[in-house]
Amino acid sequence: MLTLPLLAKMSSAALASGITACLTYGQYNVAGGPNGSGLMPPASVVHPNARPGVMLDPLAEVADAFATLKQDRAKAARNRAMIDWLGSLRTRFTVQRLETGLVYKVHYTPAAHAGAVLEDYVAVPYGPELPFAVSLHAAGNGVIRLEGLSCAGEETLGEVDLSEGGDTAETAAMAQAEAYLRTPDAADPGLPADCLTARLNRS
User: Fold this and answer.
1) Where is the secretion signal located (predicted)?
2) Residue 163: per-residue pLDDT
3) Is 124 exposed, middle or buried (CB count within 10 Å of its CB: 0-12, 13-18, 19+)?
4) CA quadruple 194, 5, 127, 47: dihedral positive or negative?
5) Could you give the CA distance from residue 65 to residue 15 in angstroms, rounded to a whole number?
6) Are strands 132-140 and 117-125 parallel, antiparallel or unpaired?
7) Who's near 23: CB < 8 A, 6+ residues apart?
8) CA 120 to CA 108: how far, in whole Å?
9) Which of 10, 51, 158, 170 has the most CB atoms around it within 10 Å of its CB?
10) Are 38 and 31 within 8 A, CB to CB?
């Protein structure tokens, strides 16, 4: 695939001519000579392991490179929004590193009234995928309600009775966060970078 450094070195005229050739002639061998004297460099420049004479689709290569660039920028903006939110908290939090991503555990001051948020478990994939949060709410009568928060909205994940003892609610929340990181929602550069943290910012 075309790399971003390579795109930066190529002139806009070269890119335009390559795309025009692709649109005009379809699957077109854009390397017009043994030294890459055609519209685009030989395949070995773009793909070091490419076989000699391999055919490339310039339009697809450029589209893939720019799609990757958009996702990288969306990931950076997402991470910045997450850092800003964590920095604004007036409570403690811990971080657990998993193979699939990070889980931020935010602990709030315990409150007795129903509906109070006790903890947030925020799952952030290592890749550009969207984050997700599991919130523990005091539901009254010794029951903890698990709420899932995403960029798309909120959903009730279940309830845990504190009479069961131990860290049952925390264990359930962590299990939900781990399950999400195994199959996270695909990145969407069209969404605001703070699409999740805006929901978590309840103050």
Assistant:
1) 1-16
2) 77
3) buried
4) positive
5) 12
6) antiparallel
7) 59
8) 8
9) 170
10) yes
Q: What residue has token string 């523990």?
A: 136
Tokens, residue 188? 């969407």
C-beta of residue 199 within 8 angstroms of C-beta of residue 149: yes
Digit-coded pLDDT (tens) for 108-140: 977 656 678 999 999 999 999 999 999 999 888
Helix (H/G/I), strand (E/B), else coil: 134:
strand
The CA–CA distances, whole Å, from 32 to 16, 43, 59, 169 equal 16, 11, 17, 65
Task: DSSP letter for 131, please.
Answer: P
Predicted confidence (pLDDT) per residue in 41-65, tens digit: 555 555 556 666 555 566 666 666 6
Tally of CB atoms within 10 A around 162? 14
Place of tokens 């720019």: 66
Residue 33 is predicted with a pLDDT of 46
Q: Hey, what are 52's tokens?
A: 């000699």
- 87-111 burial, b if ≥16 CB within 10 A, otherwise e? eebeeeeeeeeeebbbbbbbebeee
Residue type, 194: D
Q: What is the DSSP string of 141-196?
A: TTEEEEEEEETTEEEEEEEEEGGG-TTHHHHHHHHHHHHHHHSPPPP-TTS-TTTT
Q: List residues bridging with 125 in a β-sheet.
A: 101
Residue 115 one-letter amino acid:
G
Q: What's the token pair of residue 31? A: 């390397």
More confident: 73 or 32: 73
